[in-house]
Write a structure and sequence with these properties.
This protein is mostly helical. The chain has 2 domains: 31 residues, no CATH class; 38 residues, no CATH class. Helices cover 46% and strands 7% of the residues. It has a two-stranded antiparallel sheet with strand order 1-2. A hairpin with a 5-residue loop joins strand 1 and strand 2.
Amino acid sequence: MHPHQLSIDDALRELHSSRTARQQRRPRCASTYGPNELEERARTTPLMLFLGQFANLMIVVYRGGGDPGSSASVRHPHHHRILV
């Protein structure tokens, strides 16, 4: 049986641990690794998500590379199409 299928008590028993051992280790771990918390970040707005898509160079290449009349592609003097 996999550990994620066990109850908490069965998993602790299989790992030769106990709830008290976890509680005793908690202050030591907190002082070593810091609090067991996630930092709260500012939410990304849908507008910023949309605008962030254009920051990716490959998106710019894909959007401009397929259209011969696109402003993202120019004719090289030797008639080679290059993307800028």
